[in-house]
Write a structure and sequence with these properties.
- The chain contains 15 helices and twelve strands.
- The protein is of the alpha+beta class.
- A six-stranded mixed beta barrel has the order 2-3-8-5-7-6. Strands 11-12 form a two-stranded antiparallel sheet.
- The chain is elongated.
- This is ABC transporter permease.
- The chain crosses the membrane at residues 20-40, 277-298, 325-351, 371-395.
- Residues 281-405 form the ABC3 transporter permease C-terminal domain.
């Protein structure tokens, strides 16, 4: 085997320029594949992280996942009822105190009750449609994405009591209101109540910054004419991946619809899977192109070394030795390209991690490209490279092994 290794390195070194070009081709393919994978997975991880952080991991509402079974369906097997419109139940989640106590006994995370009511916020002749969310400030701190996103005022001002409200800065801009101004909230039942703006938040999510207003839970219940009602419980888990299991248990026990964040964003998560498939398909295509360079080198060496092959086979080298020889040459080029590709890929990923750009939303906030540093990217790129090199080296190796040494020495084709 050592002799075959020495011959392989001699063949590769004999065509130094072409070998170097093939190695560079593989290295560029590996390097750019690593950089592309790091950038795309980093963007995906950042997107999922923002998605998880800006919404509850499990959301329990006062709805039922399917319509209640009617008494007639239980008595008559042939009964089928369709188009039934359920009666509106303004009580919300029945006995929310007991439900919250039960959740507190086992849920590995935090949760907060709320009452969401649709209405309008008015100020100085202007009005904006909004979701008026009644909350308990103490429990809301553990689940709300707005707590640390204030540009004026503070979330803690809600705990002081009274008719206070916090709204998004985009809503305030549309209303022409500022911190300390008094706005009027109008519920869908026509009730009105004045609130003083004690905080402005900016989350970067237009729907939230423009369409949500937060008040004390009691104030929302009065405004919506739903005393002691709670129609939503939001849960933040220590491990977001446990959300589906927690949602199933909550729904089975309470009977209300409990939706995990994975279920709520199923289409987006499926799109990310498709994007990953496309990404690794492109990586495979890049490596395949690099493999053609290796195939060209090994084919040329096989043609030029035909007499050497004849002499080696006449000296007792078997066909298997010939296949291993030229296959080894292809793999060596692949290994060399992978090694240089790792260095190139690391440099490209490091350079991308230093890229800074200015967010147009604020004009001041600076951020970096989301990059995922993972050894798996290097291993996958090298795996594709070595597989391409092995395939590119196998075909010429098989042809070399089948050559008849007598025909070669006689000059036959």
């Amino acid at each position: 085997m050592q002799l075959i290794l020495e011959i392989a390195f001699t063949h590769i070194a004999g065509r130094g320029r072409q070998t170097l070009v093939a190695i560079i081709g593989v290295a560029v393919g590996v390097g750019f594949s690593i950089a592309m994978a790091a950038l795309m997975e980093g963007g995906q991880d950042d997107f999922v992280e923002q998605l998880v952080n800006t919404m509850p991991h499990v959301e329990v509402t006062d709805e039922e996942r399917s319509a209640r079974r009617q008494p007639a369906e239980a008595i008559f097997a042939v009964t089928e009822i369709s188009g039934l419109r359920p009666r509106e139940d303004r009580r919300g989640i029945i006995n929310p105190t007991a439900a919250l106590a039960w959740l507190g006994g086992w849920v590995p995370g935090r949760f907060a009750p709320s009452l969401n009511a649709q209405g309008v916020v008015r100020f100085s002749g202007r009005e904006v449609g909004a979701a008026i969310v009644g909350i308990d400030p103490q429990s809301e701190r553990g689940v709300s994405p707005i707590v640390g996103e204030f540009v004026a005022g503070d979330f803690a001002a809600l705990t002081a009591g009274g008719n206070n409200i916090v709204i998004g800065d985009t809503m305030a801009e549309r209303l022409g209101a500022e911190l300390g101004d008094t706005v009027t909230a109008v519920s869908s039942q026509g009730l009105t109540r004045n609130f003083r703006i004690v905080g402005l938040f900016h989350t970067g999510t237009t729907a939230r910054d423009e369409g949500e207003a937060y008040v004390l839970l009691k104030n929302a219940q009065i405004l919506a004419e739903r005393p002691n009602a709670v129609n939503k419980i939001r849960i933040k888990l220590d491990d977001p991946n446990q959300a589906p299991a927690v949602a199933r248990r909550v729904e089975a026990e309470l009977g209300y619809k409990a939706e995990a964040w994975q279920e709520a964003n199923e289409a987006l998560l499926e799109a990310l899977v498709v994007r990953n498939v496309i990404m690794y398909t492109v990586v495979a295509a890049i490596m395949l192109v690099a493999g053609f360079g290796i195939f060209n080198i090994i084919s040329t060496i096989t043609h030029e070394k035909a007499r050497d092959i004849a002499i080696m086979k006449s000296l007792g080298f078997a066909e298997g030795d010939m296949r291993r020889l030229f296959l080894l040459e292809g793999v060596v080029i692949g290994l060399g390209g992978s090694a240089f590709g790792w260095a190139l890929g690391f440099g490209l990923v490091y350079a991308l991690s230093l890229v800074r750009f200015e967010l147009a939303a604020t004009g001041q906030e600076m951020t970096r490209l989301p990059i995922a540093w993972s050894l798996l990217h290097y291993l996958i790129a090298s795996g594709f490279a070595l597989a391409s090199a092995a395939v590119a080296g196998y075909l010429p190796a098989r042809r070399a092994a089948r050559q008849n040494p007598v025909d070669i020495i006689r000059g036959a084709t």
